[in-house]
Please model this.
Amino acid sequence: MSLRRLVPTVVASTVAVVAAGCGGSAAGDADGKLSVATSTSAWAGVVRAVAGDSVTVSAVIDDPVADPHSYESTAEDALTFTKADLVVINGGGYDAFAEKLAEQAPDVPVIDAFAVSGRGSEEEHDHGDDHAEDHDGHAHEHGAVNEHVWFDLDTVEAVADEVVAHLGALAPERKAEFEANGKKFAQGLAKLRQELTALRKAAAGQRVIATEPVAFYLLDAAGLHDVTPKAFSSAIEGDSDVPVAAQAEVTRLVDRGEVTAVVHNPQTETEVTQQLVATAERSGTPVVEISETLPEGESDYLRWLAAEIEELKTAVARP
Model:
């Protein structure tokens, strides 16, 4: 694939090329601000944290109910990518529309978060089919490849570092500002890691059902065991019919109160997931909504994630 992968081992040389090509001061829009385009608001939140007010950040998908998997880009989206000084995409096949847009803007450097994560490649990844199964036929967390890396805090920090490096090369006079913002963001991520460590101790392997594997890394860091049958999560993520046996198994687990919570992704809501949420509400099982993009009115990545973690803490603490 011709998409420009910016992985940690080549960051320094890539930044040098960017700086040389832009002459340091030539980059930016009409008002002198640098411009960064991202595929979703989740990554826009990360970029804003380290870029500050001196950079214009645009997300192609900022609608809290839009599904990035099925999004079809527009001519306006293509123009946004072409005019940007830097592009940040998720990669891993998650935001295929953004990968295509990036290919149409060959002169714009691209940070591919999934490539940065080092967790696999598009060839190795197969939505929903790469999960190892435990003896009960449930999707097993460990060793699986999952593309939703904006919930993987190590990857988020690495991407933020790359954004700082690129912006500093594009605007050397603001380099210290970007680096200070990056340090502050890293401190915020460290606090979230502490929260997750505390949650892991409190959760002690408690089980959850997830309507879709978007929260994979977050649940794993929190020590929560996802016992959703692979056939169920694969069908929801792939927008196909859920096997009757898988739906019955999920309903049974929730109805009998055998799971701590139902983790619901409202952006992939179907009649089946609506029924599951209703079952949870009837049985008194907490429903924790974890979406793929920032909720309406929210632009701060750290604040968004802190709220998600707090919801998980509340569910785990339930008597």
